[in-house]
Structure formats: C-alpha cells, structure tokens
Amino acid sequence: MLVDTYRRNMKRLIWTQVLGLLLGGLLTQLCESFLPASPAKTFLTMSVEASVGPLSVDLVVFAFTIGPLILSLNVLTLVGIAIVAFIVRSWI
C-alpha cells in the first residue's frame, strides 16, 4: 500500500502551525498578565499584524460577512511554533 507522504507532511505542518500559533497566543497573554512593565515585556509582546477583510457575500437567500481576519505575530508566537514543532518532531 502506497502512502501519500506529501499529504501527510502537509497536514502535520498545518497542525503544527495552528497549534504553535495557539500556544504562542497563550504565552503572549501570560506574559502580558504577569510580567511587569519593562523593555523585556515590550520586546516579547510587540507584534506585527496582517489583516484581511471584511468579506461580504450576498446571495439571494441569505447574506453573511466574514472578517476581518487578523494574524498577529510576535516573538512568543514564534517560540510557541518552535516548541510545538520540536514536540511533533520528537514524538511523531
């Protein structure tokens, strides 16, 4: 039986990114809550944001709006992705 390793690797990559972003967001919130005001806190929580939207779709029967979708990256987000990638690489 042939296994499509490309699809399996892409799924693993996408899940690693999603879980890493969630872990990084959690680390960012913890850092903002517990660290005192300092240059370290500013460095760890300063983020770069990219946004798309809003996207409006109007069909005859119903209409909906999606957005805006915002991706916020900072140092702790990258740390979260690295931690999840390390766990996935060593565990799976």
Task: List key phrases describing it.
4 strands, 59% helix, two-stranded antiparallel ribbon, alpha+beta, 92 residues
Topology, element by element:
Layout: H1 5-34, H2 39-45, E1 48-52, E2 55-58, E3 63-66, E4 69-73, H3 75-91
Antiparallel strand pairs: 1-4, 2-3
Description of the structure:
Strands 1-4 form a two-stranded antiparallel sheet. The protein has helices spanning 5-34, 39-45, 75-91; strands spanning 48-52, 55-58, 63-66, 69-73. Helices cover 59% and strands 20% of the residues. Helix 1 packs across helix 3 (75-91). The protein has one domain. The mean pLDDT is 87.
Give the structural class.
Answer: alpha+beta
Beta fraction of the residues?
Answer: 15-25%
What Rg, in angstroms, do the CA atoms define?
Answer: 18 Å
**SSE order:** HHEEEEH
By DSSP, the count of extended strands is: 4
Write down the overall mean pLDDT: 87
| Spatial sequence of strands, sheet with the most strands | 1-4
Number of domains: 1
Report on the biggest sheet.
2 strands, antiparallel
Show unreliable segments: none
